[in-house]
């Protein structure tokens, strides 16, 4: 007699839960902002490069979430978590098949990345390669990054600012922020520090809000993470100090927007975003009152969606006006 495991078929509803579809806005909104900002600030837009990057970025976003679920399933020390909370264990999904599907998304993302390198500059190979390395080692390897107090910083930097930077980069030809050139055996690397600083400051709100989602997630999962030997930033801060620090995340994001407006790197119309402050405060208070993955964690996502979507909409309106004015 042999013991065989009966796995359930991966249906569309399960797939959407596996990849956490609502969280994909954390990748889509920075992409839209970076693309729109390239036109607003630098008057450059390349629709084909943007389409290629969109496919690659969303593919890597799908890979990361699904891959993390598989790694969490295999590395779980708490069997109750593995069988009850992890979607693979709860829904009896075949981890090998899920991993194969995630590898398809990874290959697709790499293929799109190589195509963009050919169409732009070689240095994009190293930027994209570093981002993919972080995505893989986030939950894989002997010491996954997610089990260290680095998750918030890396997720925000890669998925928030990194997406904006590359989305703007693939549209720019006259003012490349970074470039690599070969002259015989000499390799020349150039940095446009002014453009890099500008992109970093205007993208800082996305970085912070994306990090805030991970921070809220780790606060909710603090006890569960300890049972699974994941020692995230809230573990080192302690829950009390983590909750004290949490309200400063959206506050700092809004401060970065204000600084960008005052410097002139964002349009004055962006000031309408500060009308969201009462909503942001409400969501923060709800989370501080109770930290629960199923009932209050979504307030962090709602704050990110509200602020990021508002910035994208304002830039789209301003760009539409600029196109109309230039076409007159």
From TrEMBL:
<keyword id="KW-0474">Menaquinone biosynthesis</keyword>
<keyword id="KW-0472">Membrane</keyword>
<dbReference type="InterPro" id="IPR044878">
    <property type="entry name" value="UbiA_sf"/>
</dbReference>
<feature type="transmembrane region" description="Helical">
    <location>
        <begin position="245"/>
        <end position="263"/>
    </location>
</feature>
<protein>
    <submittedName>
        <fullName>1,4-dihydroxy-2-naphthoate octaprenyltransferase</fullName>
    </submittedName>
</protein>
<feature type="transmembrane region" description="Helical">
    <location>
        <begin position="47"/>
        <end position="67"/>
    </location>
</feature>
<feature type="transmembrane region" description="Helical">
    <location>
        <begin position="98"/>
        <end position="117"/>
    </location>
</feature>
<keyword id="KW-1133">Transmembrane helix</keyword>
<dbReference type="InterPro" id="IPR026046">
    <property type="entry name" value="UBIAD1"/>
</dbReference>
<dbReference type="Pfam" id="PF01040">
    <property type="entry name" value="UbiA"/>
</dbReference>
<keyword id="KW-0808">Transferase</keyword>
<comment type="pathway">
    <text>Quinol/quinone metabolism; menaquinone biosynthesis.</text>
</comment>
<keyword id="KW-0812">Transmembrane</keyword>
<feature type="transmembrane region" description="Helical">
    <location>
        <begin position="300"/>
        <end position="324"/>
    </location>
</feature>
<feature type="transmembrane region" description="Helical">
    <location>
        <begin position="187"/>
        <end position="209"/>
    </location>
</feature>
<feature type="transmembrane region" description="Helical">
    <location>
        <begin position="123"/>
        <end position="141"/>
    </location>
</feature>
<dbReference type="InterPro" id="IPR000537">
    <property type="entry name" value="UbiA_prenyltransferase"/>
</dbReference>
